[in-house]
Design a protein that fits this description.
Blueprint (H helix, E strand, L loop, with lengths): L2 H20 L1 H28 L6 H8 L2 H9 L6 H11 L5 H29 L4 H15 L3 H24 L3 H17 L5 H13 L7 H31 L3
């Protein structure tokens, strides 16, 4: 059971390592695109929330719109730190990629996502995108995140990447492109609506707040917050999804 998917994912992991070792800069570009695509989702969500601040359905539409981020990454091509938790850990458990290479790729992907986010945030700042209702929504959103206790943040991050990795897992199981997009949308809609924490998405929102000089923004607390989210995402993807599916398939 699931052996075909495990083999496909393992091949994908090996290809990722090959690309990284062949040309690190190109891998940074691919990871940067992943960060930029997440920023597009975050910006769209903020703008819908700002436009529909008084509407009962504004938050629902804003949550639904964030799915464009993962759709772009999967369909257009891009590397995402959280999605790679599934791919690389399954290949490592399958003894086809070393643990050292897995951690190396996670690090490069995280840095690449971060570079993409920073470049996008600088463009937003230069274009003066964060103003009016969008600025108000961003301040409320970021402030609410940073008020959470870190254990709660960790649990939300753990659950979040279970959903993201489940969506990535399904893209390997499904042969229908429309079905893939629908599942991606539903998984992302679930994590945004339930206020779960995604490290690259949070990186985007926190960067928007920093570069727009948001009042009361706390950079050091934001770094602690992001570190906890990243750890929760990693463990959620590895322990919550990758390990169970690898274990089930190992009987074959």
């Amino acid at each position: 059971m699931f052996l075909e998917e495990i083999e496909q994912i393992t091949f994908s992991a090996q290809e990722k390592i090959r690309k990284l070792e062949k040309n690190k800069f190109r891998y940074y570009v691919l990871s940067g695109l992943g960060g930029i695509y997440v920023c597009f989702g975050a910006l769209l969500s903020l703008n819908i929330s700002g436009l529909l601040m008084e509407s009962l359905y504004g938050r629902i539409l804003a949550n639904a719109s964030f799915g464009i981020a993962l759709c772009l990454i999967v369909m257009a091509g891009g590397e995402l730190f959280t999605g790679n938790h599934l791919v690389m850990s399954i290949a490592t458990l399958h003894k086809q990629v070393s643990l050292r290479k897995t951690f190396k790729l996670w690090l490069y992907c995280f840095l690449g996502n971060g570079i993409g986010v920073l470049l996008f945030s600088l463009l937003l700042s230069a274009g003066d995108f964060i103003q009016g209702n969008v600025s108000i929504v961003l301040q409320q959103f970021v402030s609410a995140k940073l008020k959470l206790n870190l254990f709660s943040v960790f649990i939300r991050a753990f659950l979040c990447n279970m959903l993201i990795c489940a969506a990535i897992w399904i893209t390997y199981r499904s042969k229908n492109e429309v079905a893939k997009l629908l599942i991606i949308f539903l998984c992302v809609f679930t994590f945004t609506t339930c206020a779960l924490e995604h490290s690259v998405a949070d990186m985007a929102y926190l960067s928007f707040a920093f570069f727009s000089s948001m009042e009361g923004f706390r950079p050091l607390l934001s770094l602690y917050f992001l570190a906890v989210v990243s750890l929760g995402n990693l463990l959620g993807g590895v322990i919550g999804i990758a390990l169970p599916y690898w274990y089930i398939s190992s009987e074959d």
